[in-house]
C-alpha cells in the first residue's frame, strides 16, 4: 500500500492510498510483464475501454527497455511491451468476430520543455516558429462526447499490421533525437538573438 499525503489539498482529505497489484523484481523477464500487464490491456481495448500503460522512474531505471525494446538479442526474445502489445492486438483482431470492424491509428509525440511535438510529421518550420515566438505548438484539448482528452492537430496514421506500427516507432524515435538537438541549437540561437 502506498499512501500519499497532500498537505495542500483543499478538500480536507489529505491522504490518498493506492494498492499495488503486483511488484516485479529484477529477475522478471519481459515476457512475464507482457503476460501480466500487456495481455489484459489488449483484451480491455478490444472491449472498448481507453487504456494507458505509463512508465515512470528515474533515469536509467529501464523504462525505455521495458516499454520499447524491439531487439531479440543473444537468441532471447527481449522485446519490450510495445512490440508485444501491438503484435497481440493484431493477432486478437484477426481472431475476433468477423462481424466486428476495428480501426487502428497511431500517433507519436514528445513533451519537451513543456511543449508538445509531433514525432511523425516533424515540421522544422513550426519548430523554429514555436521557439522564436515562445508559443504553444500543439495543444491538449478535451472532447466531452467521445474522444476525451486529445492532442489537437497531431498526425494520426491508420495501420493494419504490427510491422507498420513498429515502423512508425522507428521514425518517431529517429525524429526524437533530431528534435532535441535542433531544440538545443535553436535555444542557443534565440538567446543570442534576444541579447
Ligand atoms: N531488464 C534489463 N535487462 C538488461 N538491460 C537492461 C534492463 N533494463 C534496462 N537495461 C539497460 O539499462 C540501460 C538503461 O535503461 P533504459 O534506457 O531503459 O532507462 P530509462 O529508464 O529509459 O532511462 P532514461 O530516463 O534516461 O530514458 C540501457 O542500456 C538498457 O538497455
Ligand atoms: Mg528512456
Spans of 5+ residues with little confidence (pLDDT < 50)? Answer: none
The total strand number stands at 8
Trace the largest sheet across and list its strands. 1-2
Rounded radius of gyration (Å): 20 Å
Features:
two-stranded antiparallel sheet, 8 strands, globular, 195 residues, 5 helices, binds adenosine-5'-triphosphate, Kinesin, binds magnesium ion, single chain
Detailed description of the structure:
The protein has 195 residues and is an alpha+beta fold. It has five helices and eight strands. It has two domains: 81 residues, no CATH class; 92 residues, Kinesin. It has a two-stranded antiparallel sheet with strand order 1-2. Strands 3-8 form a two-stranded antiparallel ribbon. It has a two-stranded antiparallel sheet with strand order 4-5. Helix 3 crosses helix 5. The longest helix is centred in the C-terminal third of the chain and has 33 residues. The site of magnesium ion has 2 residues, from helix 2.
Amino acid at each position: 500500500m502506498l499512501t500519499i499525503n497532500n498537505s495542500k489539498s483543499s478538500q480536507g482529505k489529505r491522504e490518498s492510498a493506492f494498492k499495488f497489484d503486483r511488484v516485479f523484481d529484477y529477475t522478471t523477464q519481459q515476457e512475464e510483464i507482457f503476460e501480466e500487464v500487456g495481455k489484459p490491456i489488449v483484451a480491455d481495448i478490444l472491449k472498448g475501454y481507453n487504456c494507458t500503460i505509463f512508465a515512470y522512474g528515474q533515469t536509467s531505471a529501464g523504462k525505455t527497455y521495458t516499454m520499447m525494446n524491439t531487439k531479440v538479442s543473444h537468441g532471447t526474445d527481449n522485446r519490450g511491451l510495445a512490440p508485444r502489445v501491438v503484435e497481440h492486438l493484431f493477432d486478437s483482431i484477426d481472431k475476433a468476430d468477423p462481424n466486428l470492424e476495428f480501426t487502428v491509428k497511431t500517433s507519436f509525440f514528445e513533451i519537451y520543455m513543456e511543449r508538445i511535438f509531433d514525432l511523425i510529421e516533424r515540421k522544422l518550420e513550426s519548430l523554429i516558429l514555436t521557439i522564436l515566438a515562445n508559443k504553444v505548438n500543439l495543444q491538449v484539448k478535451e472532447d466531452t462526447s467521445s474522444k476525451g482528452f486529445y492532442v489537437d492537430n497531431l498526425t494520426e496514421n491508420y495501420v493494419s499490421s504490427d510491422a507498420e506500427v513498429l515502423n512508425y516507432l522507428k521514425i518517431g524515435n529517429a525524429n526524437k533525437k533530431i528534435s532535441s538537438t535542433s531544440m538545443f541549437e535553436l535555444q542557443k540561437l534565440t538567446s543570442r538573438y534576444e541579447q
